[in-house]
From TrEMBL:
Zinc-finger found in the keyword field: yes
Species: Microbacterium terricola
Residue ranges occupied by any FPG-type domain in the UniProt entry: 231-265
Entry-linked Pfam families: Fapy_DNA_glyco (PF01149), H2TH (PF06831)
Protein's recorded name: Formamidopyrimidine-DNA glycosylase
InterPro entries: FPG_cat, FPG_N, H2TH_FPG, Ribosomal_uS13-like_H2TH, Znf_DNA_glyclase/AP_lyase
DNA repair as UniProt keyword: yes
UniProt lineage: Bacteria, Bacillati, Actinomycetota, Actinomycetes, Micrococcales
Amino acid sequence: MPESPEVQALAEFLDARTRSGRIEGIDLDEFRALKTRQRPLTELAGATISAVRRFGKHLDVQTDAAHLVISFGRAGWARWNGEAAPGAAPVIGRIAVGDDLIELTDAGEWLSIGLSVVDDPAEVAAIAKLGPDPAEPGFTRSAFDHAVVGRRKQLKALLQEQESFAGIGNAYSDEILHAAKLPPAVQAASLDEEQRDRLFSAMTSVVRDAVAARRSIPPHELKAAKVAAMRVHGRGGEVCPVCGDVIVDQASSSTSSQHCPTCQLAQP
């Protein structure tokens, strides 16, 4: 699943190459991907792009006609001018900007990507309910405490809750908890002030460092760069780079979680 560092890199990449460009054509092979049936993609034909921005894990293409919000979900992504990594996902849509082409892909067993034509990104429900974004300079400790203090929810689930923290998904939640030396199943309400200090510091540093590290990487290389940078996520059975213990893999029907049982030992 694309998370805020990768979507931010994609937004910056596309903004630098398409700003002031004209949308020559836009189409979908899979009609179910369009979430605003009353507003067809043809509204954007001939429009000029004024900016490409990120909201959480969503991409906003702003034009002089309307906004195109692309929600990638679990398996959606975009590629530039046909550049694709080995085993690339099928293309389900295309946006022609001048002589360039943005291809929208989806690798899921069921359709994951969604497109919305709106006058304001906040018209998309998933964007309207987004919580504060740890990647942003304005993310504060008070906003963090508001989402964490007293919450009877496991940390792993809380970090991925978009209403609490925008942009964090399965992978970076594992990385944040490892950096904070906190187990994924502990409830947020049980954390003391020192543990919350560690979690806040880990959240901001992991996300912002990843944003900086992904910057300027072309879209088709971002997934590989993300995977290579993971310290614990996706590395079940491997050695923890901090303490040398074996990383534990906990899988469920819909997702997986990895943590170090020594670094992230539950406190009594």
